[in-house]
Amino acid sequence: MPFLYQPQEQTLLGHMAKANPHWQQLEKQNVLIVLQGPHAYISPSWYLNPGVPTWNYQAVHIYGRATCFQDSEKLKNIVDRLTAENEAAFDKPWKPDYEATMLRGIVGIKIEIEDIQCKFKLNQNRDIDDQKNVSTQLRLIGETALAKAMEDEIGNS
């Protein structure tokens, strides 16, 4: 589910189909939003020193309290902003042009953020040569975002 981050209010805003029964269980519930960053399998054959298979990753866990709403003005704002954000990369972005009555088919979700935890595993336990070799191998298989994260971490060591 896509969300809009509201830094001033420390909230996430999103929406889901009203036909989806999950929203009925969310009201005033504590929730966990998991944002998965780049991740990939790491072969022990990429190490210069003996090792075992593993998985490198970056993730963010956002804990908060959910509320639901059906205010059409708020829903239109969310849909229009999400659309603008996701259409921005297109040569001819689609501009919101829909009947306001269509908003009756969705429910807004607001998450009041209580805690944010970031976790990453980028072979920090390996020596620098193994880390560099893994980064190179990740680039060769097209996992450039994860390779860059590793390189950034190596540079900060």
CATH architecture designation: Roll
Portion of residues in beta strands equals 35-45%
Model regions low in confidence, pLDDT < 50 over at least 5 residues: none
Mean pLDDT: 94
Q: Which sheet architecture does the biggest sheet show?
A: 5 strands, antiparallel
The helicity comes to 25-40%
CATH class value = Mainly Beta
**Count of discrete structural domains:** 1
| CATH topology-level name | Pnp Oxidase, Chain A
Query: Gyration radius, to the nearest Å?
Result: 21 Å
CATH homologous superfamily assignment: Electron Transport, Fmn-binding Protein, Chain A
Q: So how many helices?
A: 4
**DSSP E strands, number:** 5
Which sequence of strands runs across the widest sheet?
Answer: 1-2-5-4-3
Distance between termini? 35 Å
Shape: elongated
Written as H for each helix and E for each strand, in order along the chain, the element string is EEHEEHEHH
Structural class: alpha+beta
Protein name: Transcriptional regulator
Pfam family, one: FMN_bind_2
Descriptors:
157 residues, alpha+beta, Pnp Oxidase, Chain A, five-stranded antiparallel β-sheet, 4 helices, 5 strands, 29% helix, 35% strand, elongated, TR_PAI2-type, Split_barrel_FMN-bd, Transcriptional regulator
Describe this structure in words.
It is a single chain. The protein contains four helices and five strands. With 157 residues, the protein is an alpha+beta fold. It has one domain (4-90, 99-127): Pnp Oxidase, Chain A. It has a five-stranded antiparallel beta sheet. A hairpin with a 4-residue loop joins strand 1 (4-6) and strand 2. The longest helix is centred in the middle third of the chain and has 16 residues, at 72-87. This is Transcriptional regulator. It holds the Pfam family FMN_bind_2.
